[in-house]
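FIELD: query
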Amino acid sequence: MININGTIFEDSKAKLSIFNRGYAYGDAVFETLKINNNKPLFWESHYFRLMASMRILRMEIPMNFTPEFLEDQIMSLVNSLSSNAVSFRAKLTVFRDSKGFYTPDTNAVSFTISVSELDSDIYKIHDYSYEIELFKDYFIAPNLLSTLKTNNKIVNVVGSIYAKENNYNNCLLLNTNKNVIEALNGNVFLVNGTTIKTVPLTDGCLKGIVREKLIEIISKSSEYQLDESSISPFELQKADEIFITNVIQGIVPVTKYRKKTYPSEVSKALLGMLNTKLRLG
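FIELD: result
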């Protein structure tokens, strides 16, 4: 089932124009959300990130795009499914809804929502091998647009194909300064002793929701110190641990990068703190 501008369609009957600007020019932003027990996790953070992204792209924000309205649109789609699942993945996409070529006729928008079932309503650490490599074919420019979740994700697509072809679980992307900025599907953190390091937004990394929540957790912790600064590729093999974060999986520990293998003790400890934050809202 698909929600298009408030109307729910069966998948086979949901249609968008070939001239849709999200398809034709990548003129769209999206939020990927985890739904637990009839509630989007970290909804306030998702909502304000979406609004900020729309403003940056000079999209017109409709008066009815309140947090309550959009949450209701998401949950009405979830509740329309014949499913006993307690957790879902939802994707809310907002695209500029007008004719024109590179220059749109107007900045008015439309939206779509799709959902799929997940197998767990809490974040879990999976104890399987997870190997990464650098993706060096293309680089990300460190600017404000790079921090947004837009439909312009071709580097992530090509990088994912590279990872699949070479039997890696994930790859790390570099910016034009040759610093590590993120994984193909999430933010990256390095652990050195009690210091946990992640990339600053000024380097061009995605403004991830779980990244934001972990920064809050680490900043308030008496056990760990946060270091928000650039990460050189040379630091990867020196790190005690590496982990990747996104809103669907939570924390994914890296077990291997080149000749170095990594444990996941800090990852597991942080995941427990994240699940506590999740339960407390």
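FIELD: remark
The chain is about 25% helix and 30% strand.
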